[in-house]
Amino acid sequence: MYGIAKTSLVLSALLGAQAFAPSTTFNAVKVQQSIKTCSTTSGTSLYSEAESTESIVSPFDNDGSAPEAGEIFELTWDNVEKVLDGMRPYLIQDGGNVSIAEIDGPIVRLQLEGACGTCPSSTQTMKMGLERGLREKIPEIQEVIQAMPEGPDLDQEQVEVILDGVRPFLKVAGGTIICESITGEGSMQPSVNLKMEGTSASLNSVKLEISQRLQRHFMLAGLQVEFL
After folding, report:
1. What is the residue-averaged pLDDT of the chain?
2. pLDDT tens by residue, 67-95
3. Which of 118, 146, 174 is the last residue of a domain?
4. Model-level pTM?
5. In this structure, which long-range contacts are made by residues 151-159, counting pairs with CB atoms below 8 Å and at least 24 apart in sequence?
6. Residues 160 and 132 placed together within one structural domain of the fold
């Protein structure tokens, strides 16, 4: 899947092109882009490049649902929604979406949903796509940050729930895994320390899968998974 990387590139391309072309002529711009695909379990190679030419319809055309080129808005909930509405189609087509979690003074907190929320490129989507688009239309915004949905408490019992889901595969592959310790609970960078043994201990793909499962389960932005 190259969904989120593609989304960020398309949003960035649209925002850059808009600065040089009025909305009346921007409606049928052809965009040449180099897409870096994301790694997936189905075997798509990481960082393979493909050239594609797409007909991009600007999300900023003045059709009543998105702001006109050059138009500036005050920082309100409705105006943030209006600007996001122009960028949502590019998230939705890749299986994701975005919603406003909170507006605290000049700070806007957004929650990425669906495939966008768990993709490794979510930070790039947030900063290079959504934050840039919002700040161009609403200069009062100082920062856009990602809100993480609340997950279960980080404890041994919940870690075991995830490990129990991968142990059958590890057993077939001749390996085992245990949780040695959990450190930094309640801090900005908690850590789950795991110990793998057997032939599967050398498989980085297995370690990556376990790490991603733990991060999706606990939904902690700073969670580190260490293999001892």
Report:
1. 73
2. 556 789 999 999 999 999 998 888 888 78
3. 146
4. 0.44
5. 151/217, 151/218, 151/219, 151/220, 152/217, 152/218, 154/182, 154/185, 154/190, 154/192, 154/218, 154/220, 154/223, 155/182, 155/185, 156/182, 158/217, 158/218, 159/192, 159/214
6. no
